[in-house]
Write a structure and sequence with these properties.
Blueprint: E1 14-18, H1 27-40, E2 45-49, H2 55-59, H3 71-75, E3 90-93, E4 96-99, H4 107-112, H5 121-130, E5 138-142, H6 149-157, E6 160-165, H7 169-187, E7 194-202, H8 207-220, E8 224-230, H9 233-240, H10 245-248, H11 253-267, H12 281-289, E9 292-294, E10 297-303, E11 310-314, E12 322-323, E13 325-326, E14 332-337, E15 343-350, E16 353-355, E17 363-365, E18 371-376
Parallel strand pairs: 1-5, 1-6, 2-4, 2-5, 6-7, 7-8
Antiparallel strand pairs: 3-4, 9-10, 10-14, 11-12, 11-15, 13-14, 15-16, 15-18, 17-18
The chain binds adenosine-5'-triphosphate and magnesium ion.
Adenosine-5'-triphosphate (ATP) binds near residues 24, 27 and 229.
Length: about 375
């Protein structure tokens, strides 16, 4: 055991899916570095790259060339010969094995389409792997940024899902979707799926990060890791160099963050059940993105990455459109309007098209046969 750490022996295999359909929230960075830190703590880990983008593969310095066997060859139903695990394994660091993949994995979407129980193919493969003499302690699955067949396979095979959440406006919306999916997957499983969330890409100087953290904590409660992964340039550099942070910069704060995560994971006695009752992401989403009172008036917000103009009009400005200002690359548009009214109707005008507010459901019929968004403050 590494100096200073001592954990109970893990005498069973645990399978952890790192999943969130939201792109760029740190799934791959977490899969690589969480795996690397577990193996640094002398656990035997197998990382499986389940994303056809192959980022865990190249992030660990493995280049898939033509003719080389990958995860696709282990999963495809079209192959006559069953390949052995050792033909597909790489060993980028002591105690860390990798099953790489590349864009060929996309073909499974179609190939599985004709098969019964196609969502259990990865589970069957992992059963074969658990009988292999290598005896892993952990299998980590790096999922693609969607809730398609590959992620569904991962969630069906896993004992636990680790959901990385980066503090952006869109991440809360993404959590609503993955929560729904987890409920559906859980119904089709025999054993409960453990759920953990991890705050990633955290920049303490951005006040909004703290707000999102509080919301995520309120929802996941003790299932949110106490460890926070901060934004560190060295994590990007390590990925570009094809190395885990344990190899690239073992003295760095980034390594310390991921080591803390691995230690916390191994030390905690997790409540592995989903909560009885979800805490209502709709409400959380509405609280954040619907109009809200701030000191200078009411903050109106709208999300669109593709629109050129977004305006708001309502009872408070005699229905004369006023422009929102685009704030960030996530497509967040904002405008503060001084509103005296406690109740009002309003609409957004997006590239000239009038529409109700998609972030909050309260609406009222208007005199023209349509509906307006409606807001009421106590
Ligand atoms: N804590 C961090 N600090 C700085 N950069 C980070 C951090 N985590 C991830 N990144 C960078 O952010 C980008 C997205 O991260 P990553 O690829 O891990 O996300 P992902 O969820 O796997 O994305 P995808 O949805 O495309 O699979 C990458 O360039 C990565 O290097
Ligand atoms: Mg990824």
């Amino acid at each position: 055991m590494r100096d200073g750490y001592s954990f109970k022996e893990t005498n069973f295999l645990r399978i952890i899916a790192v999943a969130n359909q939201k792109g760029g929230c740190g799934k791959t960075t977490t899969s690589i570095n969480f795996s690397a830190c577990l193996s640094f703590l002398q656990k035997k880990v197998l990382l499986i790259d389940l994303d056809p983008q192959g980022h865990s593969t190249c992030g660990l310095g493995v280049k898939t060339q033509k003719g080389m066997l990958t995860l696709y060859d282990l999963l495809t139903p079209l192959q006559g010969v069953a390949h052995s695990l050792s033909q597909v394994l790489y060993n980028p660091q002591p105690d860390l094995d990798l099953i790489p993949c590349n864009a060929s994995l996309n073909a499974l979407e179609e190939e599985f389409g004709f098969m019964p129980n196609y969502h259990l193919k990865l589970r069957d493969l992992l059963t074969r792997i658990s009988e292999d003499e290598r005896r892993y302690d952990f299998v980590v699955l790096d999922c693609p940024p969607n809730l398609g067949i590959l992620t569904w396979n991962a969630l069906s095979a896993a004992d636990e899902v680790l959901i990385p959440v980066e503090p952006s406006f869109f991440s809360l919306h993404g959590l609503a979707k993955i929560s729904e999916t987890l409920q559906v997957v859980s119904r089709s499983r025999e054993t409960p799926l453990g759920v953990h969330a991890l705050m990633t890409l955290f920049n303490p100087e951005v006040s909004f990060s703290h707000e999102i953290y509080d919301e995520v904590r309120a929802h996941f409660q003790s299932r949110l890791f106490t460890t926070i992964i901060h934004e560190h340039a060295s994590l990007k550099e390590a990925a570009a160099a094809g190395q885990s942070i344990a190899q690239y910069a073992p003295q760095s704060q980034a390594f310390q963050d991921y080591l803390n995560l691995a230690v916390e994971y191994l030390e905690r006695d997790w409540n592995r059940k989903l909560p009885e009752k979800e805490l209502g992401w709709d409400q959380i989403f509405r609280n954040h993105f619907g109009p809200r009172q701030i000191s200078d008036g009411i903050l109106f917000q709208f999300f669109s990455k593709t629109s050129s103009t977004v305006e708001v009009a309502g009872d408070f400005n005699h229905w004369i459109p006023e422009p929102l200002v685009r704030r960030d690359q996530d497509g967040l548009w904002q405008k503060v309007i001084s509103v005296e009214l406690k109740t009002f109707r309003y609409k957004f005008i997006v590239d000239g098209e009038w529409q109700v507010d998609p972030s909050q459901p309260m609406q009222k019929q208007n005199a023209y046969g349509g509906v307006d968004s409606y807001m009421e403050f106590a």
